[in-house]
Amino acid sequence: MGIHFVLLISRQGKVRLTKWYSAMPSKERARAVREVSAVVLSRQQKQCNFLEYKDKKIIYKRYASLYFLACVDEEDNELIVLETIHHFVE
Asked: Where, per UniProt, does this protein localize (predicted)?
C-alpha cells in the first residue's frame, strides 16, 4: 500500500493535520490540500467515500466534525485504507 499523504480537515475546511509520505514541493502540497479539501467538503454525506485525484485515489471518512483523508496509489484496495483510517481513529 502506497500512502502519499494523510490529512485531517474540519467541517469548516481548516486543516488540522498533514503528513506527507512522498516528496512534493510546498506549492504542490498547498494546491493538493486546497483542491482535495474543496472536493471532499462539497460532497453529500451519502456519496461514496472514494475519489479519483490525478493518478491517485482519495479515500476519506468523517468522524464527528473531522474528515480523515488518505491519498493512495490507484491500485490500492479502498476497503483496507478505510480500515486503516478507522484503526487510526480508535
From this structure: Endomembrane system
DSSP character at residue 21: -
Domain limits of the chain?
3-89
In which residue are the cell numbers 506549492 written?
A: 27
Give, as one character, the DSSP assignment of residue 43: S
80, 82, 83, 88: CA torsion to nearest 10: 130
Q: How many Å apart are CA 18 and CA 24, to the nearest integer?
A: 13
Backbone angles phi, psi at 18, to 5 degrees: -135, 140
Provide the whole-model pTM. 0.88
Dump pLDDT digits (tens) for 39-81.
999 999 889 999 999 999 999 999 999 999 999 999 999 999 9
CATH class of segment(s) 3-89: alpha beta
Could you tell me the three cell numbers for 79?
Answer: 476497503
Among candidate residues 88, 12, 79, the one with its CA nearest the CA of residue 50: 79
